[in-house]
Amino acid sequence: MSPSLLMLLVAVCGGLMEVQTVPWRDGESTVLVADFDLDDRGEVGVITGNQLNIYEQSHNDPVYSIALPENTAVVDVFDADLDGTADIVAVSGEKVIRIPITKDASVPIVCFLRKNLYSQYTGIPFPGVLLIMRQNTPLVALPCADVLELRSFKGELVDSYPIGMDAAKRLSPGQPFNVWTNQHAQLGNRDALEFRVSSAAIFRPMLPNNALPLPIAESSGRLGTARQQREAATAGPERWPWYPVNATEPVQIRALYARAEAPSGHTAIRIRRIPDGDGSGQTGPVRHFPGLILRHPGALPDFDGDGFNDLLLWKSQRISLTADGLARAATQRTWPIQIIAHAYAPEKARYRAKPMGRIEMDIPLPWYMDSGGTGPLKTIFLHDIDGDTRTDFGCLTDPQTIAIWRFQEEGFSASPDFSHRFPESLDAVVFETDLDGQGRTTIALRSQGHLYLLRPNTRFTR
After folding, report:
1. What string of DSSP letters covers 21-62?
2. Which residues of the chain carry a pLDDT beneath 50?
3. What pLDDT is recorded for position 264?
4. How far is residue 126's CA from residue 76's CA, in Å, rounded to a whole number?
5. Degrees to nearest 5, angle at CA 390 with 386 and 391
6. Which residues pair with 159 in a beta bridge?
């Protein structure tokens, strides 16, 4: 074997990510991520029609293929009979069924019949939590007309909780049954109206004493549209958008941000410290940083892994509004931008003025022209990819290309540590999660006809 070929093989085997391609039908497929073989690692299931295909890493063909009954609604994965083998538990019409996950085709087992909120469902099967453990016994959590019933697999009623309109504050039908994040629209068309949240209500549900212990999560921040960021600069700190810098104990630290009136293109940052149990807090002075805030609605960066979330900004040279400037911009298909990260200095209670890392890239010019309040990048990733406890940065640099930069002691490298161009445009991010429990994030992206799984390469060495 030639030395050049050997080096190529080493590079391929040691790459940061592996790309796995799975069939997908837009509008007809959905994803179910679960531990299908009870090995403490997650596998990816794709439900298309009434067929569930389960995929493991490095296998483009499914390792399990399970036929679901007609009119199946919600699907869960659980060791229902505690025999050491996982089962598919689902609701099909008024039937609660169980299907053992085996290599051979398994016949659905009808556990019991009960009219429920899913009885008339005729759409695509979707994942949800149907099984809970109580006193080491698996129970089916079945939402019915006005109550959530807990039943044994023989159909025996064990307990019930009101969930109707009159019981809105008695029981939340969210965690641990179905959990989702809802953020108001951050960006619309240029002629669209900008919606603003006029009020918010927060309460602790009055749960029964014997309900499952549910963690009460503190607010994860307040996103701000471009207009809200501009208006915040002249308002009191209670009106500023913010995100948490650290955990809640013993002192919660928030980073308040706004678009500075001057100098133009800068972000104003104030640090607010709120002692536990003290709603007043102390707000520090305004400090300006070149660039505009770049936020991910579900993740915050801790690039140096010190337990404090870092400041992430973007900036670019503005397009000149002269005739020559507009003509030059019209002939370009891309536009250069910079991504800048600033580390939090806990001993000084502020972000450091000197950037901890910087990334330069070119993006499609229409993205830059339509950057709005969330920045010009339509999709960003803020996760630990290589398992070193530090946040890495990734994004789509055009509709078909993803690039990932690892954060290291010296900051970000000049070129991406991983880049891949797909044969088609990507439509959405399906999930971003750690499947193997090793602190490494798997990213799932979908197009019209494929699901692309970007899995951390287990052979990658830092």
Report:
1. EEE--TTTEEEEEE-TTSSSS-EEEEEETTEEEEE-TT-SS-
2. 1-13, 172-192, 194-195, 197-201
3. 84
4. 9
5. 90
6. 150
Stated pTM of the model: 0.82
Q: Which helix (H) or strand (E) holds 9?
A: helix 3-13
Residue 370, both tokens: 């339509």
pLDDT score for 443? 94
Preceding omega of 127 cis (within 30 degrees of 0) = no
Q: Which residues contact 105 (CB under 8 A, 6 or more apart)?
A: 66, 67
Residue 200 amino acid letter:
A
CA distances from 190 to 226, 345, 379 (A): 12, 38, 19
- Would you tell me how many other CB atoms lie within 10 Å of the CB of residue 24? 20
**Using one digit for the tens of pLDDT, what is the confidence trace for 430-454?**
999 999 888 899 999 999 999 999 9
Q: Residue 61: what pLDDT?
A: 87
| Dihedral (CA of 173, 177, 178, 183) sign | positive
Phi-psi region of 248 (alpha: psi -120 to 50; beta: other; left: phi over 0): alpha
Cβ atoms within 10 Å of 130's Cβ, excluding its own: 24
